[in-house]
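for the record, two folds in this file. i put them one after another cuz i was lazy. first one right below, seq on top, structure tokens after. the second one comes after a little note so u can tell where it starts
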Amino acid sequence: MGEAVERLTRLVEAEDRYNIPFADLRGAQIGAMNERFQERKGQIKLVGHRAREAGITEVRSHEDVVKLLLPHTAYKSYPENWLRAKRWDRLSKWLDTVSTHRVPVDSVSDAVEVDGWIDKLADNGFFVSCSSGTTGKSAMLVASQKDMNWCKKEAVAAYSWGSGVKPVQDRRMFGMAAVAHVARNLATGEAYTAALQDPNYERFAYPVPPITVGGLTQMVVMRKAIADGTAKPGDIAAFEQISAARQKAVDDAVGITAQAVVAARHSKIHVTGLWAGLYNVAKAVREMGYSAQDFHPENSIYVGGGLKRAKLPDDYREFVYETFNIRPERSYQNYSMQELHSGMPRCRQGGRYHVPPWVVPLILDKAGDNLLPMIDGEYEGRAAFFDLSLDGRWGGVISGDKISIDFRPCACGSEGASIRDNIVRYADLEGDDKIGCAGTVDAYVRGVA
């Protein structure tokens, strides 16, 4: 890690890290992005290609770095038939195009299934996290051990700032959703447990098998095979049996979790999950005859993601808070994405997501080609970021999110850039999402791999 990057990432431990005006960070961030570029242009094949294509030899401005960003779809640019055919040699060569460090193709190519391939990569120091891929291909994002260590440190620091909860191991933790079994989630889960969980108790394990990349892949492949008429009757029957068993586990988990959290109601508890799962458990707790008055007054909550298309009553948030006796200021919400290794915690007074100084926010037009103004005021457009903390892959990404970012001080008093709590995905708004540079990036990666 270079000196300029080190100066900014070291602020993870600073109490005032979200209180630095964007204008004061501008020069330092541009210098750090150039430092990263000079380090990575010869290491990450796709970044080198983007630089040659744009004629960039040095990052002197935010406009320069926009030409070097990767669309989030770059991490889905592998041919899907390689995954179905279990061509781990080709997938490893593809992964090498987006990796800082050389992927040991020969050491991992004899895997039997995708989960085994990912495990072999981890044994060699390459940690792959994947997006859900429930409606299509999973994005595969490679990270290093340095990245895993960073995630553990940054996640707890952001949580403590956003929730006001001190990490002093005085809570009983209850997950209320199945967890994707990927490297980043495992790393941050370990960190939260070490920081928050009362060592006199075991952390409650949500009684549903973890979601693996292999399980997601099997689901996506089978759905496509059924849609195009190539699925065999035996395969369909086996898939339906697995789906039914998983659905039963999900249904049973609600009652099991409700009973466990009621039994722990006199302790400080920390609940996590998606809104749908939290609401269902809260409803079960109410049906057992318990509500806020029965729970500890210092409980806390961490909600990951939005509704994920779940249909809930308009007052679902209030219902969950009032069931578990959670004051709004102890509700931690965080804006991030798998492509980044840093979060943007939501403040309690202004209700906005705050960008840390080692993450450079870039607001683009809808096509993702042009930078919008980044001066005092609020601007709406496509979100892009450069996460200077990333070691195992390139830190610059164009997202699929439409955001409103403000470079003026927030109502909470913090003077750094912040994002309004009205984030939507372009794909949800229009049913499709096209990023200008995605096609050329996709063609290059397929050609090299």
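(here's the note) second protein begins now
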Amino acid sequence: MPWTPGSSSDVQLRNLADLASRALGQPVVAENRAGPVVAENRAGAGGTLHAVTLAREARPDGYTIGQMHLSVVRRPYLVRAPQWDATTDFTHIIGLTGWLYGVAVKADSPFQTFQEMIAHARAHPGRLSFATSGIATTNHLAMEDIAARERVEFIHVPFRGSSEGVTAVLSGNVDMIADSSTWAPQVEAGGMRLLCVWTAERVARFPDAPTLNELGYDMVVTSPYGISGPARMDPGVVRVLHDTLKAGLMSAENTRVRAQFDMPVNYLDTEQYQDFILRRAAYEREIVTRLGIRMDG
């Protein structure tokens, strides 16, 4: 798993691993490589450190699988020497869910609304900072897209995971966080204020937070993710893993876990998920080119 412990995807995937372990009658091991299926945290690099293991090191026997998210699809278009191609170097097994993204500030921030924050950024170029879970992540690119549309300049402060970004905002070291809903407990407790959400509709849990669409950006950002393994996996193994993970995803237990973070079901079967990755790779190439973002100069 490519994120820090305690992040929304970490919690959700750990629960899926536990459910899969019960269903398969085999240990799905977290934190180490001793068991048949590995659930190991490899945080950093925008959540892509695990991709080299899947694409170049792991055997295609079904014993090592990992999270496939859009930063993995996108990264080859950000560097001069790509280490993988998401369309050819993986076996895409199942589409699972996505994230509730939003922008949150500390409760004592002077910004009551997203529009007030943008106005301040326009009046003070390059002064406001925002935290994300890494360079060229979906949330980072969305903020760069907003900045380009508004003709404002932010300071981007990347962390290894969203939980670290929340800590930075609460400590006053960063002005705001633009990331998945690890900020939600702090918003509910009154320690942070939510300025907007990036879903298509307002979120019932945070009814006062406007969507990006309502703010005039015509953007919906949920960054759907799934599970993939090394290339050339046996179709029978893929089918077993797909069916097991689907049952876990649809279970009442995983539904409760996802509800903690307002993570929607974005289920795609194996064929659908493979097609999604092909189409999304073309889109990611276009947006990276349009925004002119590179990670190696």
